[in-house]
Task: structure prediction
Amino acid sequence: MSATRNSQPAERVGGSPNKPEKPVSDGPSFQQLLHAWVESHRTSLIDSLRRLLKQPIGSFFTCLVMAIALSLPMGLSLLLSNVERLGGSWQRAAQISLFLKLEASPAEAQRLRDEIAAMDDVAAADWISREQALEEFQQLSGLGEALKELPDNPLPSVILVTPEVVDKANLEALRLRLAEQPNVEQAQLDLVWVERLSAILKLGERFVFGLTLLLVSALLLVIGNTIRLHIENRRTEIEVIKLVGGTDSYVRRPFLYMGALYGVGAGLLAWLVLAFGLDWLNDAVVRLAGLYGSDFALGGVPPADGLSLLLGAVLLGYIGAWLAVARHLRELAPR
Result:
């Protein structure tokens, strides 16, 4: 008797029917990856801050050195801006003086002043009479008693013309056009001191730019050397992290945060140093300006410049830390 074989698998008595298997997940979701990334950065930031606070004196002096290097070029730039403001308006600095003929009557001088003030390239025109000119000359020259002995007033009336735009070629053309006006004896343009002041300011700007480049290089060296010391102190820890599979970005992250934190501290200190320094210097400037009858005073640190200084310090700290870690990362490979 031949036994028949069933090709179908036997069903176990009392067993439950087979359930469909759940699909296998391909990996962590985007939300999980984002949470892990944020948590890793938060941990690195807290760890870097904790390590800096464990050495408060060393961290403070490192930030102070960086702050001094940052405040020097910014302070010089602010002083140049104040000097340019002290020079006054360029339009008033480049006035054209029109000396009228002695026989010109006050009515003719007033009419000429009105005609000149109506010109398109003229911002303003002021008339100084012969009597006003003599009175001012007596006060400024100290020759009041001698001038009283003169039979007639030798000074002509003057029209001071303020140009709309300060340009050497346009000013010379305007001077020649004004010299052809009736009752004008001489048209004088004194632009030499304006050009000298402009040249001095441009020289100062170049000096500040060169000093900024030098100090930025010094800052990168300072922050790089500081981060290098932190790396050497944690060399064994980093080698263990790389042995268990830690990536270069994971190793680099705490030091980048440390460099950025150094930048934050240095930027805030530099802002404070500049504000205090300008306020301390302003007392002497106000006293000196008062002796010349001026109400000039130094301006403080504008908020926009202060924020730029802070962001620049953070960026320099980050770049310096990146360069330091990139240089020593190859040496940290496990042996």
